[in-house]
TrEMBL record:
Quaternary context: tRNA splicing endonuclease is a heterotetramer composed of TSEN2, TSEN15, TSEN34/LENG5 and TSEN54. tRNA splicing endonuclease complex also contains proteins of the pre-mRNA 3'-end processing machinery such as CLP1, CPSF1, CPSF4 and CSTF2.
Listed EC numbers: 4.6.1.16
Domain tRNA intron endonuclease catalytic: 199-281
Protein's job: Constitutes one of the two catalytic subunit of the tRNA-splicing endonuclease complex, a complex responsible for identification and cleavage of the splice sites in pre-tRNA. It cleaves pre-tRNA at the 5'- and 3'-splice sites to release the intron. The products are an intron and two tRNA half-molecules bearing 2',3'-cyclic phosphate and 5'-OH termini. There are no conserved sequences at the splice sites, but the intron is invariably located at the same site in the gene, placing the splice sites an invariant distance from the constant structural features of the tRNA body.
Name used for this protein in its record: tRNA-splicing endonuclease subunit Sen34
Region of interest called Disordered, as start-end residue ranges on this chain: 128-149
Source organism (scientific name): Lingula anatina
Length: 290
């Protein structure tokens, strides 16, 4: 049975994946890394740890589409007003969620009470003794049996636990709406539309098919960083720079790129498509000036 295609949404002509399972699938199964671009709901005022959506490079998205692993969907679907049926389903989901949270809350409170039962018994004894002593001090009659009564038979079920109010229930924040049943796939995307984009995509696809993982190489002055495996486990070996085949480069730029690659312990690879429509790769290695 073929796997269901991953859904990619275009937002301002940029591809995003909003579903957490899809984000895991493209990385674990298809070696597509992307970059998390959303804030965390519990820590929104920082940019060290990010969350969904997963933003893809145009080359990553096009590869998934052409390989049949993904489909483009209309992101404007999520902006439509919900139908009465969807509102009803949402309210039922909220009520069921609250019911489950309330049951879990009571169970957790009972565990806490069980662990502190001895302390609760001692506290009750101390309060009863203080109350009876106050009665004695006022000259009131005190039941000596009540003073000697122990509470060893006190059990968790004897202690009243206040149920959680609905205003304290956790609310699930969706990154992808679960209410859309029919996906609109009537979406057009004009990538690649220039010769430079076509070269970049061909290079990306070729290196990916050779078993590499690729990410954006902008921070090292290239188009892609090329890894032998998942970037979380390996350092990149190559900096891929995509060029038109007859594009000229000054000697200073070639030397600068080679020295940069040597400094960061990576090999710079110039990538282009020749006149015979074949991909060519030229590596640069800085050996110093003798």
């Amino acid at each position: 049975m073929a796997a269901e295609p991953v859904k990619i949404s275009l937002v301002s002509n940029k591809p995003f994946i909003w579903n957490a399972e899809d984000a895991c699938i493209v990385r674990e199964k298809y070696r597509i890394v992307g970059a998390l671009a959303g804030c965390l709901s519990r820590a929104p005022r920082q940019n060290i740890q990010l969350g969904l959506p997963l933003q893809l490079l145009p080359e990553e998205a096009m590869l998934l589409l052409q390989e049949g692993y993904a489909q483009l969907v209309n992101s404007d679907q999520n902006a439509k007003l919900p139908s009465p049926e969807q509102v009803d389903r949402f309210q039922k989901m909220r009520e069921e969620s609250f019911k489950q949270q309330a049951e879990i809350g009571i169970a957790e409170r009972k565990l806490i009470v069980q662990r502190r039962l001895d302390q609760i018994k001692e506290g009750r004894k101390a309060k009863r003794k203080q109350r009876l002593e106050k009665k004695k001090a006022k000259g009131q009659e005190v039941d000596e049996e009540e003073l000697r009564r122990d509470e060893d038979k006190l059990d968790v079920e004897d202690i009243q636990i206040t149920p959680m109010g609905q205003e304290h229930a956790l609310v699930q924040i969706f990154t992808e709406t679960p209410w859309v049943e029919e996906v609109d796939t009537d979406v057009r995307w004009d990538f690649p539309s220039t010769e430079e984009e076509r070269v970049r995509y061909r290079v990306f696809r070729d290196l990916w098919r050779k078993g590499h993982s690729l990410t954006c190489g902008g921070k090292f002055g290239g188009d892609f960083l090329v890894y032998p495996g998942d970037p979380s486990r390996f350092h990149s070996f190559y900096i891929a720079v995509c060029l038109l085949h007859h594009q000229t480069m000054s000697a200073e730029k070639v030397v600068a790129m080679a020295r940069l690659g040597s400094t960061v312990k990576k090999t710079v690879v110039l990538c282009s498509v020749d006149d015979d429509d074949e991909l060519t790769y030229t590596s640069l290695q800085w050996t110093g000036i003798s």
